Fold this sequence. Notes:
Layout: E1 2-7, H1 15-28, E2 33-38, H2 50-66, E3 74-78, H3 84-92, H4 98-102, H5 105-111, H6 119-133, E4 139-141, H7 147-164, E5 172-174, H8 209-217, H9 234-247, H10 251-257, H11 264-291, H12 293-322
Parallel strand pairs: 1-2, 2-3, 4-5
Helix pairs in contact: 2-11, 3-6, 3-12, 6-7, 8-11, 9-11
The site of adenosine-5'-tetraphosphate has 21 residues, from helix 1.
Amino acid sequence: MRILSGIQPTGDKHLGNYSGGFRQYAATQERGEAFFCVVDLHSITAAYEPEALRRSTLNLAAMLFATGLDPARSTVFVQSHVKAHAEAAWLLSAVASFGQLGRMTQFKDKGDGKDFVPAGLFTYPVLMAGDILLYQADIVPIGDDQRQHLELARDIAQSFNSRFGETFKVPEGVYPTVGARIMDLQEPTRKMSTTSGTTQGTVRLVDEPDAVRKKFKTAVTDSGREIRRGDDKPGITNLIDILSIATGATPEQIEARYADGAGYGQFKADVGEAVVALLTPIRERYLELRADEGELKRLLRAGAEQAAATVEPTIRAVYDRMGFVAP
Length: 327
Ligand code: AQP
């Protein structure tokens, strides 16, 4: 079984990325031949600084290994090092329609009200479809916010196959059963996010323990006193999900444990401590890996070589079936 997922080097990654991304990558790498890429080409679809992109790309690679990816088991690489990704984005734009792309909610959310909306923000899902389809991936571990883009990748695979002949596998998305959408601690009705979240409500994986504790202490809760999940309790529901991710206990077990009337203050402190316990070893491994840039770059070069060899037959088949003359 082939597994593929990508993650953007946009700033510091957070607990939502851990839940929908990193944690699932480490778990799914056990299930087959796994490829994980730092999707740097995606990061230029929002305002960015070139130097910050370079730094974030290496930071993110270190974080992928720190959260459990094993270079002996998984191929970890940088998207722009494998030229076929950019080529696939252009080629697949022949079978993705303007109408399909215009329906993407992330494009609407990120583009609305902006003076300058880069064309890349609109075409981004085609690049993402190429990332996935080039690897003939069976499964794609992602968070809930990427569900619509994954559906589009499946539609693009089917359109291409029916127009040019069977070429791509149609992949399945894999979403976490708990924590598919971690919410902002200050505004629990919107997702935790690097680009649009609040500073105090976004728990970064590299935050110092005391900063993490403070973010949970000041997390917004709901009316009432009960520690249970529900549509009327977005703050507490989110905290229960986070505690579940940090400790491995199910949300039901957590609700049962707090059914004796513990207050919100104690509960928030407990979630904070559990997250500190989860993140401390990750942060230590991350700092060690990040300190050896030479080794990090060596791992990424080896990953890119492996990835380029893997996609070669598929990109060649795409050119051929679309009618391009071989060089
Ligand atoms: N809040 C979240 N809860 C669960 N999963 C999440 N993911 C992102 N936010 C949450 C998942 O993390 C993986 C990598 O994400 P990414 O960095 O490629 O995507 P992103 O959506 O750009 O992440 P951000 O930081 O939240 O930025 P914005 O708001 O700008 O989009 C993906 O699998 C994603 O589902």
